[in-house]
TrEMBL record:
GO cellular component: Golgi membrane
Protein family (similarity comment): Belongs to the sulfotransferase 2 family.
Transmembrane feature ranges: 7-26
Keyword annotations from UniProtKB, A to Z: Carbohydrate metabolism, Glycoprotein, Golgi apparatus, Membrane, Signal-anchor, Transferase, Transmembrane, Transmembrane helix
GO biological process, one term: proteoglycan biosynthetic process
Species the sequence originates in: Smutsornis africanus (Double-banded courser)
Gene: Chst12
UniProt-recorded Gene Ontology molecular function terms: sulfotransferase activity
Protein name: Carbohydrate sulfotransferase
Length: 419
């Protein structure tokens, strides 16, 4: 009898301990904001758990996912707006900012209004972009590396471009050279992940560039393992089902030109040492190169666009290390066939797309998207930049980036791929 009582007491104590552990755990996760409804929230039938689509998707969830979803659903307290004080601060900062950063003063901003021109039916445009992406992801005759793997097959380190905002239920996959600096700024303002003298930033352009690109500033999927341990992948899946997921893309060849201009035509110490020196040695036969970029530029030693293309096509490059994020393919950064994105923006229609997205996210009253650079690399530059690149190289380069062209609806650059 005594043993039976002790056993029952042990079970009760263990149960209490587990409940307390779960409460503490989810308190850290932030369940108050976990099921925030955005304009993209999937509809669910009455009685269904918010964020989980009824039917096969729900049945297919692993036991742990089902348990976590039910736990969250049973404790849900709707909290669809941020505090009044924070909102007031954000609204105050939504006017035209004072640009203090040197680089951005040099580049200049285009503050002109684009709403009156190129009026687009954004809803139809999004339907078409998503249809194109899903059709080619489902097309077995169109193949590219990593296409067939599942989300569980994606290594943790490849999820480092997925930024999470739990306050508003948003996931943004950033693509370098596609307005990612300003989208990161927007995410910092919305998530309040960075403070200025104890107060969250309310104006995106007030945030210094060095803070914007500091990895510690953002909560990304690859950090979940360190925070949530074995539950991390389950938590990612639930957030992917509920949160609004977006990315912005760009014509792949134009993105390469922009990356080259940014990293090799301007003095950049890191990129000179990591990439320019090996390129100059391998493809321009230079030896005894200066150790600093300023000395190299002073001596007229710069990587040519031809050197850069050879580097991308060289099989040895990927054997040494994966492509740098500034020229890595979008399908490798954002996994569009494994993640069902709710919004696909394009740099070519940045102003319209950004304004529409902020409206759909119901945050347009809090901030405006920062303006475009006046001297943004243009699609019309392609012919000039690729004029001296051999035809065979151009064709190989297209094959290397073909998936990005096709998945995101960019036309094949026939004029560059034929004599």
């Amino acid at each position: 009898m005594t043993k039976a009582r002790l056993l029952r007491l042990s079970v009760v104590l263990v149960s209490i301990f587990m409940i307390l552990l779960i409460i503490v755990y989810w308190d850290n996760v932030g369940t108050a904001h976990f099921y925030l409804h955005t304009s993209f929230s999937r509809p669910h039938s009455s009685g269904a758990i918010p964020g989980i689509t009824a039917g096969e998707d729900w049945e297919a969830l692993p036991d742990v996912d089902e348990f976590l979803a039910k736990l969250l659903g049973s404790n849900l307290k709707q909290n669809s707006s941020i505090s009044q004080k924070t909102e007031q601060l954000l609204i105050q900062g939504s006017s035209k900012p004072v640009v203090s950063n040197l680089e951005e003063n040099v580049r200049g901003y285009d503050w002109s209004t684009h709403n009156a021109r190129n009026s687009l039916d954004q809803e139809k445009l999004q339907i078409e972009r998503q249809r194109t992406l899903r059709e080619f992801c489902a097309n077995s005759s169109f193949t590219f590396p990593t296409k067939e793997r599942s989300f569980d097959d994606i290594p943790n380190y490849e999820l480092n471009h997925l930024i999470v905002d739990d306050r508003h239920g948003i996931i943004y996959c950033y693509v370098p050279k596609v307005a990612c600096t300003n989208w990161k700024r927007v995410m910092i303002v919305l998530s309040e992940s960075l403070l200025d003298q104890g107060v969250p930033y309310r104006n995106p352009l007030d945030i210094p560039r060095e803070h914007v690109h500091n990895t510690s500033t953002h909560l990304t999927f690859n950090k979940f393992w360190r925070r949530y341990g074995k539950f991390s992948r389950h938590l990612m899946k639930i957030k992917l089902k509920k949160y609004t997921k977006f990315l912005f893309v760009r014509d792949p060849f134009v993105r390469l030109i922009s990356a080259f201009r940014s990293k090799f035509e301007l003095e950049n110490e890191e990129f000179y040492r990591r990439f320019a020196i090996p390129m100059l040695k391998l493809y321009s036969n230079h030896t005894n190169l200066p150790t600093s970029v300023s000395e190299a530029f002073g001596a007229g030693l710069k990587v040519s666009f031809s050197d850069f293309i050879q580097y991308l096509l060289d099989p040895r490059t990927e054997k040494m290390a994966p492509f740098n994020e500034h020229w890595r393919q979008v399908y490798r950064l954002c996994h569009p066939c494994q993640i069902d994105y709710d919004f696909i923006g394009k740099l070519e229609t940045l102003d319209e797309d950004a304004a529409y997205l902020l409206q759909l996210l119901k945050v347009d009253r809090l901030l405006r998207f920062p303006p475009s650079y006046r001297n943004r690399t243009a699609s019309s530059w392609e012919d000039d930049w690729f004029a001296k690149i051999p035809l065979a190289w151009r064709q190989q380069l297209y094959k290397l980036y073909e998936a990005d062209f096709v998945l995101f609806g960019y036309p094949k650059p026939e004029n560059l791929l034929k004599d």
